[in-house]
Amino acid sequence: MDLQEYLDRMNSGEPITGEGDMHLCMREVSEETMRLTCELNNQYHTQEEVREIFSKIIGKPVPEGFRLFPPFYANCGKNITVGKGVFINTGCHFQDQGGITLGDGTFLGNNVVLTTLNHDFDPAKRRTTYPAPIVTGKNVWLGSSVTVVPGVHIGDGAIVAAGAVVTRDVPPNTLVAGVPARVVRTIDPTERPRQRLDLAHLRDAPDTEKEK
User: Fold this and answer.
1) Which of these, 56, 53, 47, 51, lies nearest to 29 by C-alpha position?
2) What is the DSSP letter of 172?
3) Short-list 117, 27, 108, CA closest to 72
4) How many angstroms separate the CA atoms of 158 and 175, rounded?
């Protein structure tokens, strides 16, 4: 099985079962990606060098304006697509077998986790996995330590507050927060004076209010 056949199968959303060619290819791709992420993370690189290594990790050219602050971790790499002006901060983890697409201008804070595989709930079938893609629209901001689960789409202009766990699609131009993440309010780009108040409210709100 070649890489494109592997990616086509992962992107089909069909369950991945057993050992066979799929798991063999998965392991080979992961080994290459681990080698490249070690090269990226274990010494200083200029941003030009970072972009060059990252393009090898994802197997395609990196668009203009892309920036990444290592360390960065991925266990596939070849199913990542990034738009123009994407920024990835330190310590982010991508489990991208099911596909990760970051739209133009997406910003990721420290330690963001994007995961695109679920395991079967049946203990006897736990090795079976179900891939599902994560997609962000344009100008999305994921705060520090956000986790996004498989199959989630995040709309243009949305903000995910730090520490949130995103388990469902996020509408465009909304601020979501909490575990699981829920819509706090819509975003009006002209209301810049409200930004400090919103952040203070999320910080100071009682736990019961945060859970609503």
Assistant:
1) 56
2) T
3) 108
4) 6
Per-residue pLDDT of the chain (212 residues; tens, 9 = 90+): 788 888 998 999 888 886 677 778 888 999 999 999 999 999 999 999 999 999 999 999 999 899 999 999 999 999 999 999 999 999 999 999 999 999 999 999 999 999 999 999 999 888 889 999 999 999 999 999 999 999 999 999 999 999 999 999 999 999 999 999 999 999 987 766 566 566 666 666 665 544 45
Query: Where in the sequence numbering do the catalytic residues fall?
Result: 119
Q: Which two tokens stand for residue 34?
A: 């681990």
Q: In the sheet where 67-68 sits, what is the strand order?
A: 67-68, 87-88, 107-108, 141-142, 159-160, 174-177, 182-186
Q: Tokens standing for 201?
A: 């409210």
Provide the 8-state DSSP code for 16: B
**Cβ(160)–Cβ(181) below 8 Å:** yes
Q: How far is residue 212's CA from residue 207's CA, in Å, rounded to a whole number?
A: 9
Residue 61 burial (CB < 10 Å; 0-12/13-18/19+)?
Answer: exposed
Q: Of the candidates 160, 115, 116, which has an alpha carbon nearest to the alpha carbon of residue 137?
A: 160
Report residue 94 CA to chain centroid gap: 6
The sheet with strand 153-154 has its strands ordered as: 80-82, 100-102, 134-136, 153-154
